[in-house]
Amino acid sequence: MNRPESARQRLERSRALVVQWLDHDQDRRDAFAHSGLCQLAALPWVRSIGSHPLASLAVGALTKWWMKPRVARSSTAGVLALGTGLGLLRRRPLLTLITVTAIGALAWWTQVRKRSPTLPIAPLK
After folding, report:
1. 19-39: average pLDDT
2. Rg (CA), the chain
3. What's this model's pTM, rounded to 2 decimal places?
């Protein structure tokens, strides 16, 4: 069993958590200050919009989305796929059109089959 924490240990743990939260918040504030949105937020008409509850909520949601960290993705695979597709389209346009049409029809058919319920076949009397 774990020993119960003393009041001093709980206090130290709580203080460490508060320091961690404040550091995280300060990092986010610094990122916002350097993002260019800070200059936009300083405009007078943006401040007047901020006093309206719904507009303030929308601006806050937009700011939160803008400040969300993005995963860096390599565009190499996309560029290779696009280059290959365009090269194939240039060399074999009819084959590419038939292939894309067949894949599209197959994707459409699988979606239709998923949506349509199959009726049970009743035995003949």
Report:
1. 75
2. 29
3. 0.31
